[in-house]
Amino acid sequence: MQKMIRKPELLLPAGSPDVLRTAIDYGADAVYLGGEAFGLRAMAKNFSAEEMAEGIAYAHARGKKVYVTVNILAHNEDLAAAEKYFGELSGIRPDALIISDPALFMMAKRICPEIDLHISTQANNTNYGTFQFWHQLGAKRVVAARELSLKELAEIRDRIPEELEIEAFVHGAMCISYSGRCLLSSFLAGRDANRGACAHPCRWKYALVEEKRPGQYIPVEEDERGTYIFNSKDLCMIGHIPELCEAGIRSFKIEGRMKTALYAAVTARSYRKAIDDWFEDPALYREHLKLYEEEIAKCTYREFTTGFYFGRPDSSAQIYDSNTYVRSWTYLGTVERTDEEGRALFRQKNKFCTGDRVEIMKKDFRNVSSMVLGIRNGEGEDMESAPHPLEELHVLMDPAPEPGDLIRMETKE
Question: Which residue has the higher pLDDT, 184 or 69?
Answer without folding.
Answer: 69
